[in-house]
Amino acid sequence: MSLEDLYPLDDLIQVIYQSTDRFVLTSATDDDSWTLTLALVSSTSSKWWKKVLREGDIRKITSKSIKEFANESLKAISGGELSVSDLESSLITLVIDPVGPRPVQIPLDPVWTDEALRLSTDFVFSVGVQAQSRQNRISAPSHPMPPISSSSNAPRIAEPIAPSSSIPALAELEAKQEQERKRAEERIKALEKEVKSLSTTKQQNYMKSVTPANPVSLPSNNSKANPTRVKRVARKMQFEDDD
């Protein structure tokens, strides 16, 4: 028994409408497993379930050959012949071809927050990759679109930037700026000396202006409070001598 015959079930997606609930089912295969994921789309909450089936699991759900089982499951999934049961339980069941003579029931395990976030991210990435074949549109356009001039819709990888040829010019500019800075410092020092010299000259001129040219000196025996007092005393003493 080879699981390579499951390739018809690879890269499938289908929407399930059941009462007021909406589900999104994805199907993917590899060399040794078949992976089913189911997401509940709701305005109040979102939930994920997942099941990885290997050879022993598939033997339990069908007595047919892998190739026959894969073709019948492909027909049911593509035709929307799907349903979800046990919604009140945490372990819900996906039913393939529920109205057929032999419905296939596959229990799904709940997916917790971290893995649910990873599944959501992977799904969005897959949508982006698939959209590249449709001129980067999520769904096929309903009317003809003009062709894109580019030969490929694949994202372009940025090329490494070559070393710039303007590096010598940049070094020359920096040297010139350094020279201008030094000249500016020299001008500032010269101005400081000039200002200091002017300040000293102004101070000397001010001292000359407030100092009198011919200062007046008073006799040492005169009273500073009343200079004429000494003269009156001298006259009185001279009169007494004459008498």
From TrEMBL:
Region (Disordered): 135-158, 194-243
Compositional bias segments (type: Polar residues): 197-226
Name recorded for this polypeptide: Uncharacterized protein
Species this chain originates from: Sistotremastrum suecicum HHB10207 ss-3
Taxonomic lineage of the native organism: Eukaryota, Fungi, Dikarya, Basidiomycota, Agaricomycotina
